[in-house]
Amino acid sequence: MSWFSSPVYRRYWQHYQQAMAWHQRHRRAYRKALEAAYGPSYRHQQHPGSQERYADWHAARERDVKDGDEESSSDSEIECDVSNMEISEELRQYFAQTEKHREELKKQQQMEAEQHDSYVPADQDMHGVSWRSSAAPPLERPGERRGAEMKKLYGKDAAKIQAMEAAMQLTFDRKCDRKQPKYWPVIPLKL
After folding, report:
1. Distance CA 62, CA 18 (A)
2. pLDDT tens digits for 14-64?
3. pTM of this prediction exceeds 0.85
4. DSSP symbols for 31-67
5. What is the Cα–Cα distance from 123 to 185, expressed in whole angstroms?
6. Residue 74 has pLDDT above 50, yes or no
7. Which of 55, 124, 131, 163 is 20 to 30 A from 10, alpha carbon to alpha carbon?
8. How many degrees, rounded to 5, is the angle at CA 56 between CA 50 and CA 62?
9. Mind giving me the DSSP string for the chain?
């Protein structure tokens, strides 16, 4: 006796059989709807040879279904016709709220993915990270925007201050290249 034949799993297999029977019924109904809409030859045009390929499997499944699922509960025999069902205002509000939550969750996941892509672990060199992902030429001249901001902030002394910043940055980069310090902390700050 196999482990999956144990009586402990009887309820699971009963549910599995009910689910598969439901799936088969709905697959047949879908196929019939397609045949009614597009004609009986539609299925064979879309999936030629599929019937012959799995003929032995389908025959075994149909035999199993015919042989006896008398033990199956009456729930599997219930079919619902939802075409005449009235949808209450509460249900409409629930669906609208659910859809709104889905959109918010999708936006939040996209924002988190963008943040994660731009995140640089503290133990990696920031200079090795390329912030521009495309090989396209820049849309504006490099430094043009920075120069305009400096001009706005410092007026006529903007060039001198920009040169001092560049000298400081070059000194920092040179010392980093020479000493190759470890970045601190080595653990991410966002825990």
Report:
1. 14
2. 899 999 999 999 988 888 888 877 777 766 555 555 555 555 555 655 665
3. no
4. HHHHHHHH-TTHHHHHSTTHHHHTHHHHHHHHHHHHH
5. 8
6. no
7. 55
8. 100
9. --GGGSGGGHHHHHHHHHHHHHHHHHHHHHHHHHHHHH-TTHHHHHSTTHHHHTHHHHHHHHHHHHH--TTS-GGGG-----TTPPPPHHHHHHHHHHHHHHHHHHHHHHHHHHHHHH---TTS-GGG--S----SPPSS-TTHHHHHHHHHHHGGGHHHHHHHHHHHHHHHHHHHHHH-PPPS-SS-S--
Interatomic CA distance for residues 118 and 111, integer angstroms: 11
* Encoded amino acid at 154, one letter: Y
- Cα 61 to Cα 55: distance, rounded to the nearest angstrom: 10
Q: How far, in Å, CA of 140 to CA of 72, rounded?
A: 71
Measured distance CA(69)–CA(13) in Å, rounded: 12
Cβ contacts of 34 within 8 Å, gap of 6 or more: 42, 43
Tokens 């109904």, residue located: 29
Give CA–CA dist 189/119, Å, rounded: 11
Amino acid at 52: E
